[in-house]
Design brief:
The chain is α+β, with helices and mostly antiparallel strands. It has one domain (8-85). Helices cover 35% and strands 12% of the residues. It contains two helices and two strands. The protein has a two-stranded antiparallel ribbon with strand order 1-2.
């Protein structure tokens, strides 16, 4: 059991099930390179649609594939810079 009280075995099963179909990032819609490993900002992570901290469940239905959060932050910064330079 993980320190946060959630099951590591469940997390690994859900991660494998999501990765098996190699979906695109649910946030930006771009493909994910599933061969990349952490800490690469383009690596695959499992994202909770409704965060656990906001009452979301740890069920598979509440999880989707995404790029590492750092990738999302970099893309958002790039968009903001482009918007301000126009």
């Amino acid at each position: 059991m993980a320190q946060n009280g959630r099951s590591d075995a469940l997390r690994k099963r859900h991660r494998a099930k999501i990765a098996k179909s190699k979906p695109a990032c649910h946030i930006c819609g771009m493909p994910i390179d599933y061969s990349l490993k952490y800490p690469d900002p383009k690596c695959f992570v499992v994202d909770h649609l409704v965060p656990i901290a906001k009452g979301g469940s740890d069920a598979l239905a509440n999880k989707k594939a995404a790029h590492h959060p750092r990738m999302q932050q970099q893309e958002a910064s790039s968009r903001l810079c482009a918007d301000h330079s126009a």
